[in-house]
Each structure stands twice: as structure tokens, then as C-alpha cells.
Amino acid sequence: MEQARKRAEELLKIMTLEEKIGQTVQYGRYDDRRVELIAAGRVGSMLNVYGAERINELQKLAVEKTRLGIPLLIGDDVIHGYRTIFPIPLAEAASWNLEAMENNARIAAVEAASEGIRWTFAPMVDVTREARWGRIAEGAGEDVYLGSLAAVARVKGFQQANAEGYPTVAACVKHFAGYGWVEGGRDYDTTDMSERTLREHILPPFLAGIQAGAMSVMTAFNEVSGVPASSNVFLLRDILRNEWGFEGITVSDWESIEEVIYHGYAEDRRDAAMKGMRAGVDMDMHSGVYQEHLASIIEERPDMLKLLDEAVLRVLTIKYALGLFENPYTDVHQHEKLILAPEHLQQARLSASQSVVLLKNNPGILPLDFTKHRKIALIGPLADDHHHTMGCWSHKGREEDVQTVRDAFTAELAPHAEIFYEKGSEVKEELEGGLERAVALAEQCDIAIVAVGESEDMTGEHYNRTVINLPECQERVIREIKSRTNTPVVVVLMNGRPLAIEWVQENADAIVEAWHPGTMGGGGILDVLTGAYNPSGRLPVTFPRATGQVPIYYNRKSTGRPNLYEDYLDCDDNELYPFGFGLSYTTFAYSDLSLDRTSIQADGEIKVSARITNTGTRAGEETAQLYIRDMVGSTTRPVKELKGYRKLFLQPGESAEVDFTLTATELGMLDEKLEFTVEPGKFTVWVGPHSAEGLQADFLVV
Ligand code: BGC
User: Fold this and answer.
1) Which of 253, 456, 527, 647 is most solvent-facing, going by the fewest CB within 10 Å?
2) How many domains are there within the chain?
3) Which pLDDT score, from 0 to 100, does residue 563 have?
4) Number of the ligand 1 atom closest to the C-alpha atom of 138
5) Within 13 A of 116's CA, how many CA atoms are on the CB side?
6) Nearest CA to ligand 1 atom 12
């Protein structure tokens, strides 16, 4: 980085104003006009350009036609895979498997870079409690601790060194900041929060990603407590640059610099450009306001040249750090070896299995037993859908690459069982005759596996919902099979957000939360259903009983009347499934919680250990979770906070000890002045299988 920066400084010295401005300009569509601008050195970056040949052509214009030959930085939304699509990020988070997250990001980067893409607009690290918000699918869920670890794993994966020793692609932590705190679950909507909430719940995953080396940050669409994020001096200068010392680039979200006009924060495009640059947004994604107005702004306010120089320096530094000056072109044959490589598909299948959360399993239902499950009915609109299986943000994924549940069952289970299929309904509406055919098929089979949930276009950007139930037409299929046949029903959920599925929880015989599982989803789900993979996923989000409970999350604050009244007249207070929840085909018992001392100094450390025993009959993986509560503080603390977890794989009857060390990092909090401190007093600690259960002990900080 040092070296890259020095070279960038040298280059900056010989640049004209127009050339400098060019480096802050990014376009997401290309046409003749934009091709001309590239050849004139007036564009620094492009997104939405695909194919090594095409990208090389554009690079050639930048490198060979312009005075300084500065290569383009080609970006893309490589969110959960490029051509090999992995489970959606929320699903990956459900694996609590950091190695998998890193590996998936690495593979996504390798495939994207093989076509000349060297910058991804990922990971999205927005913590959210909003299940109605479509983009919950793109993040790591509701928890800041898990979210921070996921941010680190993904940044490391994307930026892993390529064969020449450069980061494969530059990562971009987004959307800075508060995008997931939207009012009413409406995308782009207002967020208004205390600085405490910002610092406790929103910012840590950004900082973690940056400390792991993230080379860029994307500014958000929303306003934060009165100031749009894409012109927010407090966020972008005071916190990001001055407090955290971030030296990478900031890029706006799509036209978000211009959009501050609609927020009522800028008069016109010129004013918006000025405010974006003033706040420190280095690159303007697609709106063109920097291109049009920075020159005249700087003419009028020469003091702003310094800000432009800083921005350009950062952009050039990244280009050097990625090795683009050394090698701007991509070998056009490289992708043939790398796209959908067998290792990538194998990892996609494993990751799909690891992301599955088993929510319910009546005795004798799963895993499938081919001595009694001879005839298997696959039912539901998602059992054989090559598109929706990939989930949101998978635009480079192709339907023909996707293995659905039906594909996998048909290809792999033929010798063991007879496989039948009936769609039953569409995702959002009834299918003529589908219901009757589904019931008739279920009647004739030994078990019905019903794959239901959301289509790709019910989740992701601006796909928000006011009711997060299973669509009625799909639930009806399950209801009718349950009421008219004696065939056990396994519900496989494929979705991008928590769903309020109280009726399904009460009535299905088993529930397998598979999320949108990606290219190899069918095989990954098959492995879980047959027991080849013993499910190990844990929920990274709370599942409500009803949409009206949203936002519902585990790390809430206690009210002054915690048990006096019920929260709702028409719904149980508690969640349907708590954060951290997930079953296995085996069972685990927790015992022997012990602390190595009963009190510590504020700067001391305490060891917490517990014994976990596999009390069932199959080998399996448990995720032991540690939560704490600071019982009394100068500011109130959540009733529980996740501060650690351990995964352990145990054979039947085997037991092992898990150890955690708590230090000031875990025990500290922001006091009234927002200063980080460990306050004396009682702490409670839990070690258990999820956020609503665990062995409990207390200790004192003195
Ligand atoms: C999204 C970003 C994305 C960008 C570029 C925007 O609409 O909010 O997350 O990176 O488009 O595609």
C-alpha cells in the first residue's frame, strides 16, 4: 500500500484538473458517449460491463488512448458468487461458518477476476432488525458480533492474493451507514437513531471489515438522523477518516450523491456534487454530477482542489495496489478454466448444506429412511425452479447451471426411492388444478417434501413486504395435504428473510430452512434430507410469529415492566424461533459451566468453560454460544449480547469442553459520554445452544 501510494502521489503531480476529475467518475452503463469519455481520460471506473474481451477493449481505450494511460477500475455486484452462485449472504451467515464465508468470497472473486472484474460491491455489512426489508437477504442478520465476524471473513476472501500477489478483487463494505435501520422496512427510507445505536449496532461491522483490509466503502442511500449518508461529513470525515484512519476509497451508491436533492439537502446537481466532495465521497457512481460540476466548483472555490486531490490519490492508490498499471488486461481464456470449476461447485454444495437450519423434526421423519420412504413426492413451486433457487443478486448466475431439489433427487436417489414431482401452486398464486394434483400425489407417497417460500423478486433491493408470511397459495398446499392425507410433510423453506410461519411450525412434520441456496442448492438440500450432512446451521435472525412483532430481536432492552403485561393482545410475546436456534439429527447436552474466578478487575480476564456432550446417535456439529449481560450500568444494556461461539463436531457419546475468555473487549460498553469503559458490577454469562437457552452463572467486575 505504501508503495502504491507513493506511485499515486507521483502521478497526481502531473495530472490536469480534467484528468483528476475523470478518476472520480464511474458509470454503470456504457454507450457511445461514455466510450468517448473513457478514451478522453474522463472516466475512472465502470460497473455492469461483462466479458474479458469487452473489458479489455475498454481498458485499451483507457490505457492506450489517454495521455496518462490510467487503467479503469471495473466493479460489479459480486454478492454471493459470480457464475457459481453460493447461498445468499443471510444463509451463509446461518452457517456461522467463517471459513465457508471466506472460501465462498474467494471463489466469487476468482471467477469475477477471470473476466476482468477487480472490485466487488460487497460485503453488505448492514445490521438489520427489519424482516420486512428485502435487503435483509444480503447481510449477516441482526447481530453486530456475528455481523462483524462475517464482514472480516468476506473481506479476506474477496481480497485474497491472486497469483501475482495482488488482491483478487477489492472489497467494499456497504452501505455506510445505517441503511438497514430503515423505517417500516421500506428501502431507502429514513433512518433516525442515537449516536449510541449507531456506534453499538451499525458501525462495528464496517470497522471490522476495514481493519481486515477492505479497500473501499460505499455510502448509503438513506439519510441518517437528518443528513443524507452520501453527503454526511460526520460519518465520512469525522468517523471514517479521522477516527478510524481509513485510507481506501469511498464510492457513492448508485446516483446517491445526486439523490440528496430529493432528500431536500441540495438545491441542484451542482450543489449535490459540492456536498458529496465536501463530505469525502471519492467516486460518484453513475450520476455524472462530478463530471459535470467539479471543475466549475473548484474554479469558484479553489480550496476544494485539496479535497479532489485527496480523492484522486486514493483512487490511484487502489489501482496501483491491485496491480492494474502492471497488468490492465485479462487473459480471455482464463475464465474457461475457472468459471464453475468442480471445486467451486463442490464448495457451493457444501455451503448450501452448512447454511440449512433444521427448525423442526418430529421423531422418525428426517433424515429420510429409504426402508420406509420408498416413494417420495416433491411438491411446491420451489422444488424445481432454476431461477429462484439462486436468490437475489445473482445476475451472472444462469438457470441452466442450477441444480434444483428435483434435479438432485432424480439424479442421485433413483436406486433408493421413486421420485415424483408436482408443483402444487405458483409462488404468489394458485396453479390451475395444481392443488388437487399435489394432494393426490402426496396421498400415494410415503413422504411429501414441499419446497415453498419466496421468489427471487420478493427479496433483495426494494422488494419489501408488509406481511412476511408464506404466500397463502403455498400454505394452502401444505394445509390440504395435511388435512386430506396421512402422509408426513417435510417443509423445505427457500426464502430471503425470516418468515412468520406459526401455522407451519405447528403442523408440519419437519421444517428445513434452506434459504435461497444457490447453484448447487438442490444437492446441498438433498445431503441434509438424506443425512449425508447432519444439519448444523443456526438462525442469524429472530423469526417472528407475526409480522406485527417486527422489529423483534434477541438483544433487546428490558422495559420497566418486564413481566407485568403481555406485549400483545393477539399474539404470544415471544418469538417463533430465537436467534441462534437450530436443530441437528443428534442432540447435545450442556453441563459443567464454570468460571475460573468469581470476580475480575476491569482490565482483567475471566475464562468461561462448559462441557458439551453428544447425547444422540449420530455424529454432529454443535454451535455453543456465549452471551453476557451487564446487569446494571450507567447506561442500560441489552438483556443478552452474543460475545463468542465455538463450533465442535462430536461423535455419539463424545463430549468436549468449550472455553471462552472474556476481556474488556467483550465486557466494555459506551458510557453516557459514549466513551468505551468496563463498569464495575455484576455480569451474567450464559453458554447454550441459542439465545433463549443456556447454562447461567454470574461474576463481578470490581
Ligand atoms: C445498490 C448497491 C449496488 C449498486 C450497484 C445500488 O442500487 O444499493 O448495493 O452496489 O446499486 O449496482
Assistant:
1) 647
2) 2
3) 84
4) 9
5) 27
6) 77
Question: Coil, strand, or helix at residue 678?
Answer: coil
* Catalytic option among 76, 187, 253, 385: 253
Both 618 and 522 in a single domain?
Answer: no
Q: Is residue 692 part of a domain?
A: yes
Among residues 526, 546, 566, the one where a domain terminates is 546
Whether 619 maps to a domain, the answer reads: yes
And the C-alpha cell for 378? Answer: 416433491
**Residues within a 6 A CB radius of ligand 1:** 77, 121, 174, 253-254, 461
How many whole angstroms from its chain centre is CA 530?
28
Q: What is the Cα–Cα distance from 297 to 268, expressed in whole angstroms? A: 13
Distance 667 CA to ligand 1 centre (A): 36
**253 Cα: distance to centroid of ligand 1 (angstroms):** 6
Torsions phi, psi of 305, nearest 5? -60, -35
Domain that includes residue 631, residue range: 588-701
Ligand 1 atom index nearest CA of 175 = 9
284 has catalytic annotation: no
Contact 174, 121 (CB under 8 A): yes
468: CB partners within 8 A, 6+ apart: 131, 132, 497, 498, 499, 500, 544, 547, 550
Average pLDDT on 675-692 reads 98
**Domain termination site, one of 512, 546, 580:** 546
**What's the chain's average pLDDT?**
98
